[in-house]
Input
Amino acid sequence: MCFLQGIYSGISVHQAGSVVMRHFLQKLRVWFPPPLILVLFLAADAMTASPRFIFGAVNIVISALLTSVSLWVILHTAWQMLMKRTTLNPLHADKSTTLVTGGCYAWSRNPIYLGMSGLQLAFAFCVGSLAGILAVPLFMLVIARLHIDFEEEQLRKHFGPEWERYEQRVR
Output
């Protein structure tokens, strides 16, 4: 405890624990960027695939539609950000030059992550992974805690009232 008191003098034990947890999550962000998290979930989907949950053409059609929409959202959003000459790197949201609020960003603050969730669901459905289908909320939670929370905090600091108005308007 003396070590923590020296580093975090003037704050409570609870606050010190929060600071340590936040530091740990920041390290995890670097080790687990969003594409790697998606790949890990896709691998888990493949390992939990079961023929009992494959219904022929139904799985293929639903997976193809979900994949198409998800890829369109991801690529359109990336294109928007490139056109606005702002960063696509989730580890450096503080380097954003423009707050993009049009296109996909008009209905979601995180359209790329939404698209990634769609890809994870599409793959799980395609391979017949019931565990993968049920794990989509876990995927979204991991992305939210490791990336979205930090990114939105940086954007709030960087864009101030403009971000706050946008945050009120769009979920």
About this structure: Residues 1-8 have pLDDT under 50 and may be disordered.
